[in-house]
Design brief:
The protein is α/β, with parallel strands linked by helices and about 350 residues long. Helix 1 packs across helix 9 and helix 5 runs parallel beside helix 7. The chain is globular, with a radius of gyration of 21 Å. It contains 13 helices and 13 strands.
């Protein structure tokens, strides 16, 4: 009998990567994908591949439980759909979102207040995490893996120097899972014992999505990319398509269960190396120049201060600092299986950069 994997956010960057990798690599699993709209084009494309697509609200604990259970056999009201969908799950991939609540909050403010928007988004994301965890607790009888897309404890890694709002809720959710295990009697099954935290680094896809990263034309017709990150300090990156490869390895019964957070890394490159890759792919002269957060923030007040803080953290500590982590090699993932930045860049159409 096949096992059931439930994927939250199945049509998003992380979720779709997980779905597609499991379809290719773990045939023992059938997949239930949870999304806001099971009738969307992205949902229907996954359904055609055999994925059971379900509409549910990630904020609704009862609905999540439904997503983890045999939901088709139950008559439930809308607010209960999510809880029941988890039942029967052998594995759950859960992720939370900071950026949509942040952008929504920022867009509703006049003038925009990034500090307030960050607090709103942090509280929103904490709620998402709590709902997913509490729903997972209802199916411990069948659950073998709870995989949570997380980030390092930046406060601990930096000894309190950095406190990034888009890290906080993920760290708090992992702490919540740990706290639940401390309440269990000896010998009882604990969610913490079957939880794997997967740390996803700086998306390679950020270069496609965020205008503050795009090259600017100079007076001599060449282009320059400017951020506050040093030109020659490697930046750890993840191609979102590789996330599923790491989840697939965690679910592989022949691979030992990770004993520490898994770092889903594709490649580390410097900004100077990345600019060279862009030049090669586009045929344009593109260089890199480090500048100040203050200079960049004049036109990008929402994102840039947070990115500047994050770049400062990465420069000093990398992504995980001295944390104990499990890498791809320990999971049996070969370097040839994950994306190289040069190849990633070569596969994209960057023409939109030069039409503005």
């Amino acid at each position: 009998m096949s096992k059931l994997l439930v994927v939250l956010g199945a049509t998003g960057l992380q979720g779709s990567s997980v779905v597609n990798a499991i379809l290719r690599r773990n045939p023992e699993y059938r997949i239930r994908g949870i999304t806001r709209d099971a009738n969307s084009d992205a949902s229907q494309a996954l359904a055609k591949k055999g994925v059971e697509m379900v509409s549910a609200d990630r904020y609704d604990q009862d609905g999540l439980v439904a997503a983890f259970k045999a939901w088709r056999t139950l008559e439930v009201s809308t607010h209960r759909v999510l809880s029941l969908l988890f039942q029967g799950a052998s594995a759950i991939f859960a992720m939370t979102d900071f950026w949509v609540p942040f952008i929504t909050a920022l867009g509703s403010q006049n003038p925009p207040d990034p500090t307030s928007a960050c607090e709103i988004a942090k509280e929103d994301e904490m709620r998402q995490g709590r709902v997913a965890v509490d729903a997972a607790l209802t199916c411990l009888d069948t659950l073998e893996h709870f995989i949570f897309s997380s980030l390092p404890n930046d406060v601990q890694v930096s000894n309190g120097k950095y406190r990034m709002p888009h890290f906080a809720a993920k760290v708090i959710t992992m702490h919540y899972i740990q706290s639940l295990s401390e309440r269990k009697a000896s010998g009882e099954k604990r969610l913490h014992d079957i939880t794997s935290g997967v740390i996803v680094s700086y998306y390679m896809e950020n270069w496609l999505k965020h205008p503050y990263l795009w090259p600017q034309k100079t007076g001599d017709g060449t282009y320059v990319i400017r951020t506050s990150y040093p030109a020659d300090v490697p930046l750890e990156m993840t191609a979102t398509g590789d996330i599923g490869i790491y989840i697939s390895a965690i679910l592989n019964p022949h691979v030992p269960r990770p004993t520490a957070p898994v770092l889903a890394l594709s490649e580390s490159c410097t900004m100077r190396q990345m600019a060279a890759s862009f030049s090669k792919a586009t045929g344009k002269s593109i260089t890199y120049e480090q500048t100040s957060v203050e200079e960049l923030g004049r036109e990008n007040r929402g994102f840039v201060p947070m990115m500047g803080e994050m770049y400062g953290y990465f420069e000093e500590f990398g992504l995980c600092g001295d944390m104990k982590i499990v890498n791809g090699k320990e999971l049996g993932i070969g370097s040839e299986e994950v994306a190289r930045f040069d190849s990633f860049v070569g596969e994209q159409d960057w023409g939109f950069w030069f039409k503005k």
